[in-house]
Amino acid sequence: MNDKMLKALNDQIREELSSAYLYLAMAADFEDKNLPGAAAWMSQQAQEEVAHAMKIYGYINDKGGKAVFDALPKPQESWNSMLDAFKAAYKHEQYITDCINKLVKQAREVDDTSTEIFLQWFVTEQVEEEKSTDEVVQKLQMIGDSKNGLFMIDRELGGRGAGSGSE
Ligand code: OFO
Questions:
Q1: Rg for the chain (alpha carbons), in Å?
Q2: What is the DSSP letter of 72?
Q3: Could you give the CA distance from residue 5 to residue 91 in angstroms, rounded to a whole number?
């Protein structure tokens, strides 16, 4: 594989693991604030990010490259509200979409068709990632300061495994 492409894919492994770290920090903060549903949602999201990293790791190996790991940045520890955390998650997913788009561009530049095709899964996944975080932001904005509303959203988020989440 082209050296630059390999480096860019390795960088994306770090971005995905860094996403996992961020969402696990959010899960821990929700646990701390007695919001078990949101904690479960973020914990599942963190696991999905690890799966995204593993997908790239597997692809690098399949192509005969070597995965190399960089240090992960320390994530924020606490957020002012569930809305703040989900807004940050949505913004983060927009950033990850940008990273994926840059990877696709690079694959095209070096004429690496298999990597371009491999990345299509991530392009589609990012649509879902942005949608699922933004949906929660919209709901939280709708309920405003209502404690009842927050309780209900937390309960709904806890049911993610039952079919409302992304892969
Ligand atoms: Fe890996 O999709 Fe979110 O970050």
A1: 17
A2: P
A3: 25
Q: Where are the domains of the chain?
A: 3-158
Instruction: State which of 12, 14, 94, 96 you would mutate to test the pocket of ligand 1, scoring each by most atoms of that ligand within 8 A of its C-beta.
Output: 96
Q: Which residues line ligand 1 (CB under 6 A)?
A: 16, 19, 49, 52, 93, 96, 129
Give the pair of three-digit tokens for residue 36. Answer: 């078990």
Q: Which atom of ligand 1 is nearest to the CA of 49?
A: 1
95-117: pLDDT as tens digits: 999 999 999 999 999 999 999 99
Residue ID of nearest Cα to ligand 1 atom 1: 49
- pTM reported for the whole predicted model: 0.93
pLDDT (tens digit, 9 = 90+) per residue, 23-33? Answer: 999 999 999 99
The pLDDT tens digits of the residues spanning 49-102 come to 999 999 999 999 999 999 999 999 999 999 999 999 999 999 999 999 999 999
Is residue 123 within 8 A of residue 107, CB to CB? The reply is no
Domain 3-158 has CATH 3.30.110.40: no
